[in-house]
Amino acid sequence: MSKQQNLRSIFKHFISREQSEGVGARVRRSIGTMLLRKFSPFLMLDHFNVAPGAGFPDHPHHGQETITYVNEGMIAHEDFTGCKGVLGKGDLQFMTAGKAICHAEMPVQSNSGEHVVGLQLWVDLPTDMKNTEPRYRDLRNKDIPRANPTDDLEIEVISGNSYGVDSVKDLAYTPIDFYMYRGKKAGTEFTQKFSRDFNVFIYVLKGAVNIGDQVFPQYSSIFFNTDGDAVGGTVAADDTEFAIIGGKILDQETVQHGPFVEETKEKLIKVFYDYQSYSNGFERARNWRSSIRDGIKEDDAPNHHN
After folding, report:
1. Are 268 and 237 in contact (CB under 8 A)?
2. Dist CA 226 CA 182 (whole Å)
3. Where is the Pirin N-terminal domain (predicted)?
């Protein structure tokens, strides 16, 4: 690890506890709880584990982006614009809700009965982008650049630059850096650079990491101060997997109620009115029902690929 780099200090950490969400789904939520309400530009982070028959049927969003990473299984999505598809293991979707979107996210019921596991991150949109038109950016696992600084460390460079490897561009409107680290052996060092105007956190999906003199086990969320140019540490257990995520701090007020995000209470109330009156982007929500709201089976999934 370079001595030239000024590593950030930790300001908060905790282990995410499991809770119910959606219809029959279980999530470990870190950002978006009483322990940490928001961490600009991030509004929520869920580590989801969804059984066959459970999921997140038709629901709206406004004023935010969502980033979904599938770790195990397959998840289908469909919205009121007619966009639909299936994300497989290692795939991502960047969804900009913007002005208005109604969609469903349902696990594909595999023939083996496996659960769908992954991460979903909610990101605030800059004020001038709150009412942009909705859009999607899918990133297939095969298209994600990899960095391999050592034989024992692999990084999926989803968004940003890691060890000299650049990501695919223009995935999100809010500037986000997103890396999935996999360490094969305990003791493997890692360092990830970040701009000082980015908030940064680590989430441990499997294994453990050592930062400073402290070991953080599975399901730990570690949040950093903005007092350095990088975060770093060592892998603390063989076969460890963790996400390092950063985002540009937005200098704006944020008022949130469920999946609706705005900068003032008055604007948030208007969004609720728009949704209830099918106006200002929500026109297509009237009488809309997704074809996957009651679930989708593996044998039917190929018909839903983009």
Report:
1. no
2. 24
3. 25-123
Residues annotated within a binding site for Fe cation:
59, 61, 103, 105
272 backbone dihedrals φ, ψ, rounded to 5°: -60, -40
Question: DSSP letter string over 183-196?
Answer: ESSTT-EEEEE--T
Q: Which residues contact 112 (CB under 8 A, 6 or more apart)?
A: none
Long-range contact pairs involving 254-257 (C-beta distance under 8 Å, separation at least 24): 254/38, 254/40, 254/43, 254/124, 256/38, 256/43
Question: From CA 12, how far away is CA 104, in angstroms rounded?
Answer: 33
- The secondary structure of residue 33, as a DSSP letter, is B
For the chain, the structural domain boundaries read: 10-251
Residue 285 has pLDDT above 90, yes or no: yes
| pLDDT tens by residue, 249-277 | 999 999 999 999 999 999 999 999 999 99
Contact by Cβ (8 Å): 20, 26? yes
Cα Rg, the chain, nearest whole Å: 19
Buried b (16+ CB within 10 A) or exposed e, 149-170: beebbbbbbbbbebbebebeee
Residues 41, 54: Cα–Cα separation, whole Å: 29
- Write out the two tokens for 105: 């996210």
pLDDT of residue 22: 66
CA 15 distance to own-chain centroid: 17
Residues 6+ apart with CB under 8 A from 40: 124, 199, 247, 249, 250, 254
Give the rounded distance of the alpha carbon of 136 from its chain centre: 14
Which residue ranges make up the annotated binding site? 59, 61, 103, 105
User: What are the tokens at 301?
Assistant: 């999934």
Residue 247's identity, in one-letter code, is G
Contact 25, 60 (CB under 8 A): no
